[in-house]
């Protein structure tokens, strides 16, 4: 038995001697140092999330500034086209003025191909003051277009009516739009609508001679065609 135990001890010692370089035993402190990450590699709590939030805020700020600049450039170009139209109108170049006003309106509508998405994003961030500026420019362009069309040799009264109604859709008490809409309806043969718009214009400017003259012409046309001419007070009741 003693010889057997001695043989097993010798075999175990020989096995450990053969494999001691294949499985080195590290000291306990060295093992703990390898398992524990160094302080320099560990990120502070919430550090990565904070950086992402800061980057998101900066990105939103730059995008907002860029969209605002883009809106300003786009609106400024519309104003420039409108001013060029005014200059052409004063020089009695009505056809050129009409083209300039149309360019201004196209710029306001933002229908230049790939610009649509950008302008829609910019429009969603417009302030109330910016919205009023866009609306005012649009009203002025449509109003100036009707003035140019009425100066043409062959007046397109259907287009005059359309533009006047657009102006009145934004500003119901616009005197020139009411008066010109009355003229357009008169020449289109819709005397009842013409009389209504002309009377609305008269309520704004009671002494305007052009309005009074067209009211008389409209009432005469209605009398000749057998249409009843209603009194201004009874018109709303009827």
From TrEMBL:
<dbReference type="InterPro" id="IPR019734">
    <property type="entry name" value="TPR_rpt"/>
</dbReference>
<dbReference type="InterPro" id="IPR039663">
    <property type="entry name" value="AIP/AIPL1/TTC9"/>
</dbReference>
<protein>
    <submittedName>
        <fullName>Tetratricopeptide repeat domain 9B</fullName>
    </submittedName>
</protein>
<dbReference type="InterPro" id="IPR011990">
    <property type="entry name" value="TPR-like_helical_dom_sf"/>
</dbReference>
<keyword id="KW-0677">Repeat</keyword>
<keyword id="KW-0472">Membrane</keyword>
<keyword id="KW-0812">Transmembrane</keyword>
<keyword id="KW-1133">Transmembrane helix</keyword>
<feature type="compositionally biased region" description="Basic residues">
    <location>
        <begin position="1"/>
        <end position="10"/>
    </location>
</feature>
<keyword id="KW-0802">TPR repeat</keyword>
<feature type="region of interest" description="Disordered">
    <location>
        <begin position="1"/>
        <end position="52"/>
    </location>
</feature>
<feature type="transmembrane region" description="Helical">
    <location>
        <begin position="60"/>
        <end position="75"/>
    </location>
</feature>
<feature type="compositionally biased region" description="Low complexity">
    <location>
        <begin position="11"/>
        <end position="35"/>
    </location>
</feature>
<feature type="repeat" description="TPR">
    <location>
        <begin position="175"/>
        <end position="208"/>
    </location>
</feature>
